[in-house]
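Aim 2 progress. For Nucleotide-binding universal stress protein, UspA family, the working sequence is reproduced below.
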Amino acid sequence: MLAKKVVIAVDFSPASSNLLNCIDELVDKGLEEVILVHVIDLRIGEERSIVAVQQETETRLQEMAEKLKKEGIKARVNVLGGFAASEIAHVAEKEQASLILIGSIGKSILKEIFLGSTTFDLIRMTTTPVLIEKYRKDEADHLRNVCISKFEKIVVPIDFSRCSQLVLDEIRQMKNIREMILLSVAEHGETREEVERILEDYRTRLEAIADEFREKGIEVSVKTGVGLPSKIITTTAEEEQATLIVMATRGAGLLKSLLLGSTSDAVSRHSKRPVLLIPCGK
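Predicted structure tokens for this construct:
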């Protein structure tokens, strides 16, 4: 996956401020240009005029942009008014961005494992890949990125659909992946024998995929499970101390219904590890 042009959603929360910690590894993925986007919620009354708020916001974004320019990255700012998720999605589509980078902690969120409302709404409607950064709190109660080298050890849920194939196509373009865990989950089975047959089939098919990536020098392990896919995916990522979960999402796009596949929805919400969502349908 080449992250040539990245939209970074900024709301000036501690979480979004830490998003720039991801820049170095995105440069390794081909990053050339960043668009810093902030959306002013016009539904919330401000004592100051909207013009004053916009000017202050642009000043703060320009300061961030200057830091990026000093690192040799093209940077632009975009201050908009309206519904944050739809505006960010629109900018990414208009700019033909490679990726949207957003933090997982909203201003009203109480626990780190849940998504802020903007992030949740965005992944429902965008047709651009979304990298959801995750954070933990240190002993001083400060937010820290869960892991900086996110592409070193990735968990890849596979259901053998067209969407899974698109995810694998993206991974084939990624660099510096050291280790992969390919994971398939069986949800249903009338008998124990049927479940075992399904899992054996999964293991055979996963091993075929694994061999391709092993030839590229990547260490690959194969795992299967039975139960709720989102639970098994997030649990596996924690047990394996993965740096990233890479999976498909079946978002419907901007003009259609805002339904999201339940597994990618739940993983995005509850994972303590960063999640990269690859839309498989526009």
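DSSP finds nine helices and twelve strands in the chain. This observation will guide construct design in the next reporting period.
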